[in-house]
Specification:
It is built from ten helices and ten strands. The protein has helices at residues 10-16, 31-40, 89-95, 126-134, 145-156, 158-175, 180-198, 203-210, 216-226, 229-248, and strands at residues 2-6, 23-27, 44-46, 52-53, 58-61, 73-74, 79-82, 101-105, 115-121, 137-141. An eight-stranded mixed sheet has the order 3-2-1-5-7-8-9-10, sandwiched between helices. A two-stranded parallel ribbon has the order 4-6. The longest helix has 20 residues, at 229-248. The radius of gyration is 21 Å and the shape is elongated. The protein starts with a strand and ends with a helix.
């Protein structure tokens, strides 16, 4: 598979970390980033941008959505894999000629090669797309663009919501007298352990195992329910999904 990565910002470079076994060309307009790429990724070949030669290649589109209308290409791609947020496949098809199109939504875990990436699009490129994005973490194929917009609200935006939870938990511990450093260390270990537990058990079962009658967890859980924390998170996903749909409509 010959890959042309168009755009090598944070997410583009995160993907490059897992692509050492591929033949990769990169089209990037920022001179500073181009210099970084040469030093960091010796397997990458820099190519001109505007126009980008895509003939017979797999194009991975990682530019800002607002830059798509001005992108110039030459030839017809084997496939296009787009990670442009809120940009439907119909728009990608009009912008870049190709035999197959797939839309993917990685998240910030890609920076540590632990992304949770959702994909959808043409099944003709299903295997290759899953392989490419699997190099930076886990993948999940869904059957519609509506589902990938919901996934954007959950897995794409979710790291920010979990970061808020982590910060708030640490703040609570500091308020009660624990040192900031110790609180942060405890939160890091907490998230690591819960993530492993969620591999095997439903969240509700995990919660019930921790919450004994009349105990400390039950008291804290009641405080969260009293303040509507569960509903607030549900509303956060709904609001993010609504925004994803608005972006898709332009």
């Amino acid at each position: 598979m010959k890959i042309v990565l168009i755009g090598a910002g944070n997410m583009g470079q995160a993907m490059l970390e897992g692509w050492g076994g591929y033949e990769v060309e990169v089209a990037e307009v920022n001179d500073e980033i181009r210099h970084q790429l040469v030093a960091r990724y010796p397997f990458v070949r820099l190519i001109p941008r505007d126009p980008v030669d895509i003939e017979g290649k797999t194009v991975v589109l990682a530019i800002k959505p607002q830059s798509l209308p001005s992108l110039q290409t030459v030839g017809r791609a084997k496939a296009v894999l787009s990670i442009l947020a809120g940009t439907p496949l119909s728009v990608i098809r009009e912008a870049i000629p190709a035999d197959a199109y797939v839309r993917a939504m990685p998240n910030m875990g890609a920076l540590m090669r632990r992304s949770m990436t959702t994909l959808t699009g043409d099944h003709a490129f299903h295997h290759e797309a899953m392989e490419l994005m699997g190099s930076i973490g886990r993948t999940l194929w869904v059957h519609s663009e509506k589902e990938i917009d919901v996934a954007t609200a959950l897995a794409g935006s979710g790291p920010a919501y979990l970061a808020l939870v982590a910060e708030a938990l640490a703040d609570g511990a500091v308020r009660e007298g624990l040192g900031r450093h110790e609180a942060q260390k405890l939160v890091q270990g907490l998230f690591d352990g819960v993530a492993a537990a969620l591999e095997k058990e439903h969240p509700a079962i995990l919660k019930d195992k921790v919450m004994s009658p009349g105990g400390t967890t039950a008291a804290g859980y009641a405080a969260l329910e009293e303040r509507g924390v569960r509903f607030a998170f549900i509303e956060a996903i709904c609001a993010a999904y609504k925004r994803a749909k608005e972006l898709a409509l332009g």
